[in-house]
Specification:
This protein is mainly α. It contains 1 helix and no strands.
């Protein structure tokens, strides 16, 4: 899901401590199609994310 947000302890775990980039999301969608997975939910571009913030850490308030 393109809206993934590292909440709670996920912010401290390498590999899941940041949001997805648009490129990473595209790769995941392509892999899903390549593997024939038909029950996934794919968002149309712009993938429901603000691309200016994609892949950037956002400090919690």
């Amino acid at each position: 899901m393109s809206q993934y947000y590292p909440a709670h302890k996920a912010r401290d775990i390498s590999g899941i401590s940041r949001r997805l980039t648009a490129d990473e999301y595209s790769v995941a969608v392509d892999k899903m199609k390549e593997l024939g997975l038909m029950n996934g939910w794919v968002q149309s571009p712009p993938y429901g994310m603000d691309l200016r913030l994609a892949g950037h850490k956002i400090k919690p308030r």
